[in-house]
C-alpha cells in the first residue's frame, strides 16, 4: 500500500473510490464525470491538496484538504463554483436529482452559489472578499476522506488521517479542523480514535479539531 499525491490522470480512479465510499451522496448520484471534475478542485490551487492510497493500481482510499491562512469563502462554496458547469450538465441529464435530500437540505447554499455565479457572469472582477478583522489562526481543513466500501474498518482511514497530520506538521501549522455528520458513527469513531476532539455539535453536524504541539 503506497500513499500518492493525486495527479489529473488519477482523478477518475479516485472518483470511483469516492462513489464507493459515498454511495448515497448527491455527488455520487451526479455521476463519475461530476465527481472527477469536483475532485479537480483539489488540484486547482496551492492551498488545496489531494492524496490517495494505492494497492496494485487500485485506489483504496483518498483524502483532500484545504490550507486556510486567512478567513474567506469555505471549501464547499469554492468547490461548488469550480464544478458549477459540470453540475448543471449532470443535473440536466438527471433532473429528478433536484429532489435529492442533499439538494433540499442545501437549498440556501445552492441559491447563494447560483447568485455568486450570476454576479461573476455580470462582473468578471467580482471576488468574494472577507471583512472579518478578528485574529485568525491558520489551520488545515480536512475536506474529504473516503475508503472504498469493501475496505472499511481495516485501518485505512487511520493511515489517511496520519498522512493528513504529517502534512500539517510539514506546513508548520498546529491546527486541523473537520466537520462530519453526527449520524456518521464510523467516521466519528475513526476521528476520535486518531486523537481528534469534538469542538461543536450544531444541527446535524459535528465539528472536530486536533491540535498539534
Ligand atoms: C470514515 C472512514 C474514512 C474511516 O475509515 P476506516 O478505515 O473505516 O477507519 P479506521 O482506520 O479508523 O478503521 C479502524 C478499524 O479498523 C480496524 N483495524 C484493523 N487494522 C488496523 C490497523 N492496522 N490500524 C488501525 N485500525 C485497524 C480497527 O480495529 C477498527 O475496527 P472497528 O471499526 O471495528 O473498531 C471510512 O469508514 C469511510 O470511507 N466511510 C465512508 C465515507 C465517509 O463517511 N467519510 C467521512 C465523511 S466526514
Task: Describe this entry's structure for a reader.
The chain is α+β, with helices and mostly antiparallel strands. The protein has a single domain (2-159), classed as Aminopeptidase (3-Layer(aba) Sandwich), CATH 3.40.630. It is 41% helix and 24% strand. It has nine helices and seven strands, in the order E-H-H-H-E-E-H-H-H-H-E-H-E-H-E-E. The protein has helices spanning 11-21, 26-29, 32-40, 75-82, 84-93, 101-105, 107-122, 156-170, 185-193; strands at residues 2-5, 48-55, 58-68, 139-147, 175-181, 197-202, 205-211. It has a seven-stranded mixed β-sheet with strand order 1-2-3-4-5-7-6. The longest helix is centred in the middle third of the chain and has 16 residues, at 107-122. The radius of gyration is 17 Å and the shape is globular. Residues 21-22, 145-147, 152-158, 180, 184, 186-187, 190, 193 line the site of coenzyme A.
